[in-house]
Specification:
This protein is of the alpha/beta class and 341 residues long. The protein has helices spanning 63-77, 79-87, 95-107, 111-125, 128-145, 161-170, 181-194, 235-242, 259-267, 271-274, 276-285, and strands at residues 18-26, 29-37, 43-47, 50-52, 152-155, 174-178, 200-204, 217-223, 243-253, 288-300, 322-333. It is built from 11 helices and 11 strands.
Length: 341
């Protein structure tokens, strides 16, 4: 993480000021350090350049870590499957198996071959309309960001598709965040491979308890990150607390009458942010003024399963063909109205 973040951060639990002890620094990058809260004495380390601001107060499931570790363990236990996955011609693999091959290549540090496998996988995992609408939203975010200045904080960065695009197109400082340190370690290695790491800071925290001061974030972005946050609770209120400027959220919404996917969506507790009307209501209740920008609609289908790995899939949704409405939600703090006595 970069040194400029020290002025923006507080204890994620009690919002107390932090005292820093830096033990390793490379130029503006803090590699190893410890931050101690002056109020509650909680400590937050920086390891391998990643600021770890996770609190044990909130439960969470590190799904990407489970996928990565579970995949590698399963392949180690079944070498014949690993041989098939890694040696069969790409054209004979299912899109899911191409993606799993990319994960294995990443674990071996072969990021060039992993990128080729992942790019090929994405074209088969998602419909052309899905990919077109998604890329259209990313382009819109980049165009809007080009009119702003300063660091950009990207929420729930995942595999860093938006982060990479921001750096390439805008050459801006970016804070890539996720609650999974494993995901951020992968992102560091990937960005170093691309020669883009110098402009990136990495922070691990739970979006429901962020380590930022009130209004410290001028620009917040997320690429389909909001629905991936379990039990969101007061998530949008917490984001409103830290954002002093604007919030750009790449989003997609399911049709209200889509019964086939609704059952899974509601069982997973994702209905509040995967339906347009309820999402806008949630934002308004949390004190946001939100505009729906850059609408794009297109068909989406379930991602094809793995052939080699017993039907394993990449995405849990959709479970049936549907028509998604894509957009960028552009949010600012709603203005407070004065009440007459």
């Amino acid at each position: 993480m970069h040194t400029y973040l020290m002025e923006m951060l507080v204890c994620p639990v009690c919002h107390g000021e932090l005292t820093w002890r830096i033990t390793e620094q490379k130029d503006a990058h803090i590699e190893t350090a410890e931050a101690r809260c002056n109020a509650c004495a909680a400590t937050y380390p920086v390891r391998d350049g990643i600021g770890l601001f996770l609190s044990p107060a909130l439960p969470r499931n590190d799904l990407w870590q489970q996928v990565d570790s579970g995949l590698l363990r399963h392949l180690h236990e079944h070498p014949e499957l690993q041989r098939q996955l890694m040696t069969m011609p790409p054209a004979t693999l299912s899109p899911a198996d191409r993606f799993f091959r990319a994960l294995v290549l990443e674990s071996r540090g072969d990021f060039g071959a992993a990128q080729i496998a992942e790019d090929l996988a994405l074209k088969g995992l998602y419909t052309p309309a899905y990919l077109r609408c998604w890329q259209n939203q990313l382009d819109y975010v980049i165009e809007h960001l080009s009119t702003t200045r300063g660091p950009i904080v990207d929420l729930a960065s995942g595999r860093g598709y938006l982060v990479e695009r921001i750096i390439r197109r805008l050459q801006r400082p970016v804070v890539a965040t996720d609650f999974s340190p494993g995901v951020l370690r992968r992102n560091r290695q990937w960005l170093q491979h691309l020669g883009l790491y110098e402009q990136v800071s990495l922070l691990a925290f739970d979006a429901r308890l962020t380590p930022f001061k009130d209004g410290a974030v001028d620009t917040l972005t997320t690429n389909l990150g909001l629905p991936n946050i379990e039990e969101p609770g007061n998530l949008l209120k917490e984001l409103r607390r830290i954002v002093g400027g604007m919030f750009l959220s790449v989003s997609h919404f399911y049709p209200e009458d889509d019964k086939a996917n609704a059952k899974v969506i509601r069982k997973a507790g994702l209905a509040s942010l995967l339906y347009r009307r309820s999402a806008l209501e949630q934002f308004a209740t949390a004190g946001w003024a939100v505009e729906v920008k850059n609408l794009c609609e297109g068909q989406a289908s379930p991602t094809p399963p793995s052939i080699i790995l017993d039907g394993a899939t990449i995405d849990g949704l959709p479970v049936a063909d549907t028509h998604l409405a894509w957009c960028v939600l552009l949010g600012h703090r709603a203005k407070q109205t004065k009440r007459c006595g």
